[in-house]
Amino acid sequence: MPSNVNPTVRRRRLGQELRRLREIKGMTAEEVAERLLVSQSKISRLENGRRSISQRDVRDLCGVYDVEDLRVVDSLMQMAKDSRQQGWWHAFGDIPYSVYIGLETDAESLRVYEPQVVPGLLQTRQYAEALINGALPEAPQTDIDKRVSVRSRRQDRINAPEQPLRLWAVIDESALRRLVGGKQVMIEQLERLVELSHLPHVTVQVLPFEMGAHPGINGQYAILEFPDAADSSVVYIEGVTSDLYLEKANDVQRYSVMYEHLRAQALNVEQTRHFIEKIAKDYTQLNSA
């Protein structure tokens, strides 16, 4: 369940408000940086919510923007204080994709396209462990265990008794055919997919090979939407050394249109269940051979 104070979301909201104040003042990020004797990149990171914001930063920026309403200043200062609190994921130590976890924790809905693997929120523990071991062959077992535990904790959003995350997953057939962890692990993973697809807030569709080229051919992405209208939707694209977060309305719209095409080309829900069950049956026959 989302926490009452999500530091990642607080940083985003605060950054958006600071950007709005700068634009009202008619100043560029470079001009603000020059006034405060800091780098322009720092101002950009503060505004996009990728960096913790101190109360001193807020005070200085409010001074530059001539914010005279003390209630506004106090509200921004409180948001800065909240943004420095730690989310549940910090208990696991340094997590490379902690920004994404913070967004996912507070999201109302998530649309994801996965071309290579089963989406993390739908993975069994055995599948997740085998997948992470394969993706990070040089990582120590402690790191593998930590990542698996974090992934398991993220799945609480799917199983929450109240206000669970609405998830729509389009999965390429290759993700179901890729043998991760052995045949028995795949059988249990596919059965889990079918089981979760019956939840009213989870929709699973498979994009079969026979559909040929499609709008998702360039790779994985996810679209997160939030319950508060003040929080803009985010497109998340995972990378090897860094991740990409797109928040501009035009970018989100473009990826949303692409997703509609993917959903239209994929098998419907019932066809998807039969398709997954057929692949699971194939694995079962191979396992008993």
From TrEMBL:
Q: Known CDD domains for this protein?
A: HTH_XRE
Cite the Gene3D superfamilies for this sequence: lambda repressor-like DNA-binding domains
Cited Pfam families: DUF5753, HTH_31
Domain HTH cro/C1-type spans what residues?
Answer: 18-73
Name of the protein this chain belongs to: Helix-turn-helix domain-containing protein
Organism field: Streptomyces brevispora
